[in-house]
Structure formats: structure tokens, C-alpha cells
Amino acid sequence: MNLKITTLAERPELTGAMWAMPDTWAEFVQYDLVAWSHMVRIAVEWPEYVLIATDDAGRVVARAFSVPFALRAEGRGELPDGGWDQVVLWAFSDLKRGRETDTVSAVEITVAPDAQGRGLSGRMLAALRENARGRGYGEVVAPVRPNAKHLEPATPVEEYAWRTRDDGLPHDPWLRTHVRAGGVVEKVAPVSMTVSGTTAQWRDWTGLPFDTEGLVEVPGALVPVHCAPARGYAVYVEPNVWVRHVL
Q1: 6-20: per-residue pLDDT in tens?
Q2: CB-based contacts of 55: which residues, under 8 Å, 6+ apart?
Q3: Which of 99, 81, 91, 128 is nearest to 247 (CA)?
Q4: Which of 6, 39, 48, 153 has a CA 20 to 30 Å removed from the CA of 65?
Q5: Predicted confidence (pLDDT) per residue in 77-130, tens digit
Q6: What's the predicted TM-score (pTM) here?
Q7: Mean pLDDT in the chain?
Q8: Is residue 177 part of a domain?
Q9: CA proximity to 244, closest of 159, 158, 140
Q10: Total tally of structural domains belonging to the chain
């Protein structure tokens, strides 16, 4: 597939098509409150860090979001256990305070369903790395959502993240793409995203009954959801895996 990859700053007229692009995210994921309240703002505040890929027909087939932040600011220094949520909050805090940034974090790389299986995610990752390099940054970090972890939600993520194949590359396909691109798996972010809702909401999101106390395995979830039907709520705490790309 011939791709044209540009920043949203270069092609703002594609904003609507970018958001309208179909994806395969499970419905419940969008109800992480940090994502709900901040994702659209990333495109507004940092369009130069948002990449869009179009095919020969001009159709948007992939997008990649990233944010600049100050990893080495006082009180930080290490990639946070809070993963995706924390790095997005740090980025907006740094923007508000006018703090000088030193690192770029990937936030999302999404490929349209009918364009998957053609290596587009790897090309978008390479473009995201190059975009950060071109803006003077020395590294990109990514709170990676391992894309095959949902097939074994009961497996501890600490075990899954470090599992490798015979060739030494990660077992997980998306982690493997990052490592092949030059990234290094650094640590687990155990509380990277949190989705809480009433049991009625979870029934709407998943079609499951959510009437049993304890852990519920949900299609698309990396780990089980904690269900408390007597109290009327359920909570999903998603772990991600930090990968560091030195440019």
C-alpha cells in the first residue's frame, strides 16, 4: 500500500476523517476518564505530534498520536507506573506550566480494520519516531498495550511482558514490532488505564451479565474486570508495558 504520512498540522482538513476512521477498540476502553477528557485535546494542542496516513484514494487508513513531556522534571525521572494515564496528565501539566519538554511519548497507533495485516502499524511507529527525532528529541517512550494479551487475560502481565520466542524477540506481536524498530522493553505500568462504571454500564458495553462477584473476563480486556454487583459497580485496571526508543 502506498501511504502518504503527514502531521495533522500539515493537513488539518483531515481532522474529521481521522476521527471518523473505523477502529477495533473495545467499547469500554473509551471510558477511561483521562482518555475521554484529553484525547481530543491532543489533536488541538499538538497537531504537529499527530500523524495521519492516507492511501492512494486519499482515505485515512491509520493515525498515530504522541505528546511531548518533561520526563526529567523534578519528582519524575522514571517512567510512571500510571502508564498511559499518567504520561498524558504530565504532558498537559507541562503545557500549562510552560515547562521545557525532553521526551515524546506515543499515545496511540491505530490502523483501520480493512488495512490491517499490511505492516502499517510498524510504518506509523517509524514515522512517529522520525517525527520526534526531527523535532530535536533523543527518545520516544511508549506505554504499549500488548495486542495479544487479551487472549490470555489470566496470565500475569509481569510474566507476559518478558516472554520471548526462540529468536529472542517478544512473544507479543505489538511488543515485537516495537523491539524490531529499536525499542527496549523497560517495565510494566500496572495501572496504566482505569475504567470504572456501574454494572448496568458494563452490561451495555460488553453484553455480559455482570451479576457475579469477583473477576469477569471481558472480550478485548487484557486482564479480568473486578465486579461488585452487590455494590452496583465494576472496575477494570489495565496494565501496559513501557518501551523505550533511543533515537
Answers
A1: 999 999 999 999 999
A2: 1, 2, 3, 4, 61, 115
A3: 128
A4: 153
A5: 999 999 999 999 999 999 999 999 999 999 999 999 999 999 999 999 999 999
A6: 0.96
A7: 97
A8: yes
A9: 140
A10: 1
